[in-house]
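Q: How would the C-alpha cells look for this protein?
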Amino acid sequence: MSGRDSVLPRAARPPTHDDLDLSDLEAVRLLLRGDSVVDWHTLGFSEHADVDRFLRLNEFDPESDDEMQRLEDIRADAVDYLTRVYGLPIPDEVAEEVAARDLFLMASRDGANQKWACVVLKVMHIIHHVAGREAMISLAISDEEINRQVELKVMKVVEELRAAGAPIAEFEWSRKPRDSMITKLIAKRSTLAANIYDKLRFRLIVPTYDDLIPMLVLLTRQLIPFNYVVPGESVNQLLDLGTLLESNVHLREVSENLQRDSDGKKRPLPLNEFSGPEYRIINFVADIPLRLSRLVPKHEIAPESSHVIFVLTEFQIADKQTAMQNESGQSSHDAYKSRQHEKVRARLLRGEDEPLPPD
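A: Here is the predicted structure in C-alpha cell form.
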C-alpha cells in the first residue's frame, strides 16, 4: 500500500518506577479502572514532544501538513458543535488562534483557557472516533484483513519493545472462534454481536509482578492511546495501584496531582461471572487506531474521510507466576468454559434438567 503504514513512536528502554510522570500514571489508572477521558478536567503534557508522541499513538503524523490540517478541521467541527448546539462562548484563542496541536499543552497548564481547551479536545476526541467508525463501515474489506493488519501492527510494536529490553516473557494472540462467539452471546444478558469486545485478543506475560507497571506504561507510550481505552470494560484483579503509589517516594509525589473523582468514591470494576474465584488478570479493551492506507491505496481514500479506522481489541496482562496459577483448578480455561456452557444450557432449556446433546 502507498503511504506510511504507521507513525508510532520508536520503542525506548523500559522505564523504572522513578521514570514515570503524571501522564504515565493517569494513563495506567484509566486503563486499570476503565474510566473515560471525557470526565477528565486536565491533561498532563509538559512539552511538544509529549504531544507529538500522543498524536503518533493516535496515528496522526505531526510532520504531515495534511494530517495536521485534518486536526484543524476536527477542531473547527468541535467548536461549531459547541457553539451551535450549546451556545458556549469558546474563546478565540482556543477556537482558532492557536494551532490545534497546542491545545494539548493549554489543557495541561493552569490558566484562563485550560477549561475551554479541555472541552474542545473532548469533543474533538469524539468527532474523530465517530469519523473513524463511519470510515470502517464504508469499507468493502473483510474482517479477516482488518484483523490481520491489527495483528501485524501489534506484533511489530511488541518485537520492537522486546529488542529494547521490555520485560516480556510470553506473547500470544488469538481470534475468538465463531462457536465461542455464539456461546458468549447466549450467555450474556446482551445478545448484540457488537458487544463482543474480545474477537481479537493479545496476551502479554511479564516475568515478575514488579514488571507489570513498566509493561503497562510501555503499552500506553508505544501502542495504545489512553483516550481510546473502552470505558467500563477493564478488569484489574492483580495490581494494587494505591499501595504501589504509597510505597515509592517518587510515585507518591507525582500521584498527588492525579485526577480526582467528582464524588470522591472508588468506582467498582466489572468482573467476569464465569472466572474462577482465584483467577487474577489485568484485562482491558482498546479501540486501536489503524491507518486506512494499510487497507486501501492512499489515492482511493476520499479527502473528507478519516485517515484512520478503529478496531476493538482486548489485552490481557499478568506476571508469569500468576499466569501459571490461572491455569490450574477452578481458574483454568477448561473450568471457565464448563461454567459458561452450563449457563448456556440452563438458559436455553429454561432451567430444565434435560441436557443438550454432546458436542
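The longest strand covers residues 308-319.

The chain has two domains: 17-30+141-348, 47-138.

Upvote if useful.
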